[in-house]
């Protein structure tokens, strides 16, 4: 449905090859521009360096972020962290001097639209804010699938231009150890779940013998219970399916991750937070005339069968509670996996998704809980 118009454009002879390449990128989540085939790029969007650390030599497949330095990078920068050469005072390579024993490790996100940081700017929907300037970033947004991974909570690395600051796990690791510069991968997709992540994970780039260990965040926080079906409960992932999907993914990681890595399983969100805090507020579309609430928006999306989550974005309290009950069951599966399953190259931890705790902290700072949710879709965590 999404690509109907796109496919029509692709019938022109001069565009068919380009369209096929774009379809390949969207399907496989690999960079559009990657001349050496190492899965890293010098181009920002179309799964480029907004999603993975920027390549510093796209003509050499042995040069990419995250690898252990080649001969301490005496002559060139093999891992793109900006550190190479020899100190003329003592003849010691800078990489050895600064990074030896520093326990360098990258950060990888396996996630969904929340991790990819899905965002539709409010100024695109708010009449009083619309202007040519407000749509200036439209091409970039579309070529990043309406995601903004460069600002995300796990792999964000740029100053945010969409409200709030960028404070990511990657930036914290980088501040602690500059040898980690550019060692990030955001392998997320809109609609990502424990099921389709089994295909998505194949775009993961890590060499078990040549690269540094990594911290991998597994965070499909909603789509295993969220769907747009009217019989939404019947289409939710079961605990048995969740266990099978996640263990398969972890076994795949065990065959790819260097020894000494870590995996953190993130529990599902309790999405009742959304209805509780937004349903009677005005959506950006209705702020001018005060005539469209989030409750009405949710009902409209549900009617069109394009709701991001029929189980939570509904006035039916019983259905919201049942959806949260299933989410808790799936989180408990993740918790049990972290407790009982063992792997050769990494240890496994479990962490709850701390939306309510975050809201409590935000309220103590003088904020309102609704500010933590994306204003246009009323579903995803916001940049705040």
TrEMBL record:
GO biological process: lipopolysaccharide catabolic process; negative regulation of inflammatory response
Alphabetical UniProt keywords: Hydrolase
A single GO molecular function term of this UniProt record: calcium ion binding
InterPro entries: AOAH, GDSL, SGNH_hydro_sf
SUPFAM superfamilies associated with the record: SGNH hydrolase (SSF52266)
PANTHER family with a match to the protein in the record: ACYLOXYACYL HYDROLASE
The protein, known as: AOAH hydrolase
Organism: Oreotrochilus melanogaster
Gene name of this polypeptide: Aoah
